Amino acid sequence: MKKIAVVGAGIIGSCTAWSLLKRGYQVDLFDKDIPMVHTSQSSSKLLHGGLRYLETGQLKLVHKALQARQFWLLQAPHLCHQLKLLFPIYKHEGRPKWQIGLGTKLYDFLAKGSGFPHSTWLNAEEVLQHSPNLKSQGLLGAYSFYDGQMDDYQLGLWVIEQIQNSGGQVFTGRPITNLDELSDYDAIVNATGPWVMTLRSQQATPPTIQIDWVRGSHLFVNQPLQQALMLPIPNEKRIFFVLPYQGKTMIGTTEIRQDHPESEPASPEEIEYLLKSYNQYHHSLLSTADVCDTFAGVRPLLKDAVNPSNSTREWAFETVGNVLHVYGGKWTTAQIQGEAAASCLENSFKL
């Protein structure tokens, strides 16, 4: 039986290990800390297609993600559920109604067969019934659409359970600092997320892929929320979410490019940025005194855009020697990416 080492027990590495186990390989999964403790537990807690990715033409990715949501809901319904979101439209502010309407209809089309309800238009009165704290001045209405919400940390640990139940070994507190440590394995998968270049740099040839380290910060307010919202950042093309999560309100995210893979705490500037954006749309204003917690994670995005907001959430593979390097990816499509990585490994190394 071929032995494969997977380095990195985030959601991408874990799904890759799980896929390889289902194909009959002996798999050992290594992590320098514990599973899901970095980027994988610092998401926006959404299993989503990425409505905003339609604007940059990433239809293929959106279609894959929309179909992938149902896998998680079917496999682990105790850890995720469908979530109705509203995208409010204001007169002379943000994107026009026709553009958002077209986007939600395309979202519906790409999601066909995934088991999620279609988008609908709500007038201003209906919107305020769902979200009474929204400002009413200039409100034309909102498009409702559906995605999924998850407990990313617990759902990630559920994948770890599947690995262990399938006979895989998970080694925590085991940093792999040199590829020579894994010389007994037939193949190696480098799925270390933001740290992927650390092991890649040990090989002589220059990498064919480059990544951006982009920090995304979120904050919590200790009050329940009736309705999930997707809102445009004032005077920007970016969007942000206001989401109910475990009895609190979660607001995020930011996109701050940095020059290293380690995550930093949400900065005062990021917190102010999110609060200012929230207050633009709500009657009851929030201040830093209302923030009960924050979290931030670093996303390793494929580097192909000046503005990190336009970077793709697709993934890429590179094989060098007996090592498969995994770049980029997205929580929602992690299971699909894991299967693709396993297929790439088999095809590249004739396992």
Helix content: 25-40%
**What does the average pLDDT come to?**
95
Q: Pairing-aware structural class of the strands and helices?
A: alpha/beta
Rough outline: elongated
C-alpha Rg (nearest Å): 21 Å
Strand segment count: 16
Kindly, what is the distance between the CA atoms of the first and last residues, rounded to a whole number of angstroms? 10 Å
- Write the element-wise H/E pattern from the N-terminal end onward: EHEEHEHEHEHEEHEEEEEHEEEH
Q: List low-pLDDT spans.
A: none
Largest beta-sheet characterization: 10 strands, mixed
Using brief descriptors, characterize the structure shown.
351 residues, alpha/beta, ten-stranded mixed sheet, six-stranded mixed sheet, 8 helices, elongated
